[in-house]
Amino acid sequence: MSTAKQIKEKVSSFDEGTTFKYDQLGIDNSEYGAATKAIERLISNDVVKRISKGLFYKPKKSLFGDLKPNEEQLLKPYMYEGNNRIAYITGLSLYNRMGLTTQVPKTVTLACNKKRINTEIDSLKVKSVKSYVDPTDENIRFLEILDAIKDFKKIPDLDIDSAIGHLQDRIRDLSNTDRNKLITFALQYPPRVRALLGALLTDQEFNSAFPKLKNSLNPLSSYEFGSLSSSLSTAQNWNIV
């Protein structure tokens, strides 16, 4: 099968609104020259549109014309290598989605362990920070909770009572097996994250959190999160001030 036909069939299999890069077309490096020509032909036939250099999308048709991909689709090519996730959305975009802040950031932050991601996609600015754990599709729900705890003091417009409630709800929805996974990932985060997670878990009487998290902390250290005592009665037991 020719490279052009292979790419045409691959693009045809994509859902409308899907974004992609060359490395998602299943071609060898030696075929990139032919692939470039094939993509240009698809662009001229209005099958594919270019967002930026090396980034394309299959437009979704509507009565008002072609619709651009949503933010998640725009970011997807930077969050995966092939079918493997390498990054996830964190920072203000995540905390806004979690209901912890009303602020909408001008720059989206991706957490990634493999490479630095600093780019602009259409009008969307993207930067990256190093993740504490290699992200996968299965573990990002745990990493999101831990990131929110890590940045708790820095989240703008944070209402402490409401934020503790949101975090408690997320943790409460986890099975006991998943709570133990959350603890395992937390051990790779800074001590203040382990302390607040311990307080949240023991507040829910999930006491298996106590030995693993408590033993990972320096008993002489304290962790400043602001006034949490009215929102979280177990905070003092974890040296949270």
Could you explain how this protein is built, in words?
This is Transcriptional regulator, AbiEi antitoxin, Type IV TA system. It comes from Fodinibius roseus. It holds the Pfam family DUF6088. A hairpin with a 2-residue loop joins strand 4 and strand 5. The chain is elongated, with a radius of gyration of 22 Å. It has nine helices and eleven strands. It has three domains: 67 residues; 65 residues, no CATH class; 82 residues, no CATH class. Helix content is 39%, strand content 17%. A four-stranded mixed beta sheet has the order 8-9-11-10.
What is the fold's blueprint, element by element?
Layout: H1 3-13, E1 19-21, H2 32-44, E2 49-52, E3 55-57, E4 60-62, E5 65-67, H3 71-79, E6 80-81, E7 84-85, E8 87-90, H4 91-97, E9 107-112, E10 119-121, E11 124-130, H5 140-150, H6 160-172, H7 176-186, H8 191-203, H9 209-214
Parallel strand pairs: 9-11
Antiparallel strand pairs: 1-3, 2-3, 4-5, 6-7, 8-9, 10-11
Helix pairs in contact: 1-2, 5-8
